[in-house]
Each structure stands twice: as structure tokens, then as C-alpha cells.
Amino acid sequence: MAIQTSELIINPDGSIYHLNLKPEHVADTVIFVGDPDRVERVTQHFDRIEFSIQKREFKTQTGYLNKKRITVISTGIGTDNIDIVVNELDALVNIDFKTRQIKPKLKQLDIVRIGTSGTVQPHINLDSYIINTHGLDLSGTLQAYNTQEINNSNIVNAFIAQTSWSASKSNPLIIQGNTELISKFESSLTLKGLTATANGFYGPQGRKLRLALEDPLLNKKMADFSYKGLQITNIEMETSGIYGLAKLLGHRAVSLNAILANRANGTFSKTPKQTIENLITYTLERI
Predict the structure, then answer these.
(1) Is 279 exposed, middle or buried (0-12, 13-18, 19+ CB in 10 A)?
(2) What single-letter DSSP state applies at residue 275?
(3) Per-residue pLDDT, 264
(4) Spatial contact of 60 and 72, defined as CB atoms under 8 Å apart
(5) Would you state the pLDDT for residue 75?
(6) Could you tell me if 120 and 235 are in contact, meaning their C-beta atoms sit under 8 angstroms apart?
(7) Each residue of 36-64: pLDDT tens digit?
């Protein structure tokens, strides 16, 4: 059955609605960055760029690095944007735009996030790299989908119990990243751990400016959380959405984070641009 025009919106030029991409623009390996300005900080290392476009916060460049074709996309901030980007990427490779039908043979993408984050653990150094083995979804975005088969309910139940998670908030989910990609990118230079994905930068991540927080101790509770050796290392705003949607759609995903803030110690990196550049170089060397 053909997908209705209200559900899959295709622009007059044949590109998909938000990303403004056509199927031929997408490589099998896709790098996600948040900031549109960071796209060229990645592609400046490429041997050549064959395509470039930007619509709103979604900037895309596709090119070649050592004969490997790679697409780099800026997602903007938050799992709501991730919902757009991952769904539209999947549509580009797995839906026939002429017939509006799902292709009989599905393509699997490799999605690699190069992001920034703050750690909740006092012992984790600024400017270090964390590979997230799991995403703890606190944003609620994934609740729109049937996640029962990919959610680790045992870890979720432990998290709810140990943090006294309020029933008035969205129910947390735990999604594991792709183990093969995690192994590919880990080294003596990286740490591993679970990332909490919040639906905001200030209150949802425990930052207090003028507004009182529902749970001022949440970050400390997350730092103390433990389940069979698994600990929460950091908080950011995208990883769980990437892991959840990628797994549901049959893609592989891994998230790498440069630690720019230590929330437990109240400190911030003195060299954030260089730290991000170092993580970009590290990722490209292993991709």
C-alpha cells in the first residue's frame, strides 16, 4: 500500500521534506553532529565533497575519505530533531519515492554520532571521550513508538527504584547501542558507559538558574546509579533517540561524546574547540 502524501512529504524537486535530500545523496555511513558549523569541521578532512545542502538546522555534506563514501548531517539539538533526521534518512534508503512503498530489500545504515556532553561522575576528566554503550531515554520521544522489544526493562526498573523517579514524568527507556560499532571505536583513549538523554539543557539536566527543580538531587542519584557494573557517565540530548530509532528501523548506531563539562565538579573545558577537533580526528581514523 502506498504511503499517503501527508505522511511521507516529498518536495517538488523529489527531495524529502526537512532534510532536502534525495536518495542518491545518502552514503551507507552517516555521521551525526549537532551544530551545522561542525559539519565542515568533519568534511574538511575529506579527500573531496560531492554534495552539500542546508535547510534550517539540517546541513548535509557527502564526500569521500580514503575512498569511503560518508554523509555528514547536522541534526540540531534534541531527540525531537533526531526523530526527523533518522526517520527521513531511513525513508530515503528504504522507501521507493516513486511508488511510495517500502522496498522489498531494506538497507542498513551505520550511524556515528560525534557529540558533546557533560559528565555526572567527579572522576571523569574534562576533554575525555566516552562511547555510550546504552542510552537512557528521559525525553519521552521514543514513547510514540512500540519499544517493548528493544527496551531493557531490568535496568529501567533499577533506575526508577534507585532514583525515586517521579511517576508524573515520562517513563524511562534503556536502549543498547550497536556492539560491533562500539568495539570498532573503543580504545585506550575512550571510556564506556550509559548516557542519560534529557529533553532540555537546563532543568531537565539539573541546571538551576532562576527556576526551582523538581528533583535537585537527580544528577547525584544518576551518578550513584549502578546495575551489574553499568553506571551513568554523562548527560546529553540525542543518543537514546538515535539508538532507539536506529534499532527499531534496523540500522547500526554508536554515539561518541567529548566531555566538555563536569557537572559534579562544576567545571568546564578550557579548550572545547580543540577537544571536539580531536574527537573528530579520532573518529575519522577509525571509521
Answers:
(1) buried
(2) H
(3) 96
(4) yes
(5) 98
(6) yes
(7) 999 999 999 999 999 999 999 999 999 99
Percent of the chain with pLDDT strictly greater than 70? 100
220 — phi, psi (to 5°)? -65, -40
Interatomic CA distance for residues 34 and 58, integer angstroms: 9
pLDDT of residue 151: 97
CA atoms within 13 A on the CB side of 100: 10
Q: What is the DSSP letter of 36?
A: T
Kindly give, in sequence order, each residue whose CB lies less than 8 Å from that of residue 138, ignoring residues fewer than 6 positions away: 169, 170, 172, 196, 197, 198, 199, 204, 240
Give pTM, 2 decimals: 0.96
Query: Quick one: cell of 22?
Result: 534525495
- Strands, E, within the chain: which ranges? 29-33, 48-55, 58-65, 68-74, 95-96, 101-102, 110-119, 129-137, 173-176, 190-197, 226-227, 230-236, 252-262, 267-268
Helix, strand, coil content of the chain in percent (nearest 5)? 30, 30, 40
Q: Interior CA angle at 62 toward 191 and 83, to 5°?
A: 60
What is residue 77's three-state secondary structure? coil
Q: What is the pLDDT of residue 1?
A: 82
Q: Report d(CA 15, CA 148) in Å as an integer.
A: 33
Secondary structure element (H or E) that encloses residue 174, with its range: strand 173-176
Query: How far apart (Å, rounded) are the C-alpha atoms in residues 260 and 127?
Result: 6
Cα separation, 190 vs 180, in Å, equals: 16
Segments of the chain scoring below 50 in pLDDT: none
Coil, strand or helix at 231: strand
